[in-house]
Design brief:
alpha/beta, Rossmann fold, about 30% helix, about 20% strand
Length: about 220
């Protein structure tokens, strides 16, 4: 579903400038330069309206989190949500408007500890498989920017995408742990921070599939 155009979106995004990374050259040089303290760096790809990013930043002051979103009007909502809550959480959250295809151009090699893929677009048609964020081409990018021993944490409600992803992980020789096809009814749900999609899907009775992939 295409995001509705935000009225005065550019101005609203500019009003949150202190939370937005726009200097990708500086990002490539040192992602930690955008934070007051150097901490393990986590990245969410496709942050949507920002529920997960804001929740994780508040719950885990020991990390720095960059939330990436390719649709500016969606990022606007996330930025405003984060700015509104800025006084109630550590200063450990920044946003980046852009596409995951540019990861290796924007982040130094082996600089990220953890990547989150939460309810990514499943790109249902077979001819669009290469656009899926768990396709091996993207996995190769993640391997380049993740530190040795880094992980991808993956959640989806889409069974076909989950099955496809498991095949891609195996093809890339990656180790998968914490695999569940019903996250909210498993011990792995302890400490889980939900996205806005996750809350809606689970309330409708859809099981949430999840896995941790080791690089």
């Amino acid at each position: 579903m295409r995001a509705r155009k935000k009225k005065h979106g550019a101005e609203r995004i500019a009003a949150c400038a202190e939370l937005l990374i726009t200097d990708t050259a500086a990002l490539k040089n040192d992602p930690q330069s955008f934070f007051a303290e150097k901490r393990p760096l986590h990245l969410e790809i496709g942050c949507g309206k920002g529920n997960f990013a804001c929740g994780m930043a508040a719950k885990h002051p020991e990390i720095n989190l960059i939330a990436m979103e390719c649709v500016a009007d969606v990022a606007c909502t996330a930025l405003e949500k984060a700015k509104e809550a800025a006084d109630t959480r550590p200063d450990n959250l920044r946003f980046l408007i852009g596409n995951a295809e540019n990861l290796t151009e924007w982040f130094p090699a082996h600089s990220i500890d953890c990547i989150y893929l939460n309810f990514s677009d499943p790109w249902h048609k077979a001819r669009h498989a290469k656009r899926r964020l768990t396709y091996r081409g993207f996995l190769a990018r993640y391997k380049e920017v993740l530190k040795e021993g880094g992980v991808v944490r993956f959640k989806t409600d889409n069974v076909a995408l989950f099955d496809f992803s498991l095949e891609e992980f195996e093809a890339m020789g990656l180790t998968v742990t914490d695999l569940t096809r019903d996250l909210h009814n498993s011990p792995l749900n302890e400490g889980n921070v939900m996205t806005e999609y996750e809350k809606n899907f689970s309330e409708k009775g859809f099981p949430i599939h999840a896995a941790t992939i080791h690089f």
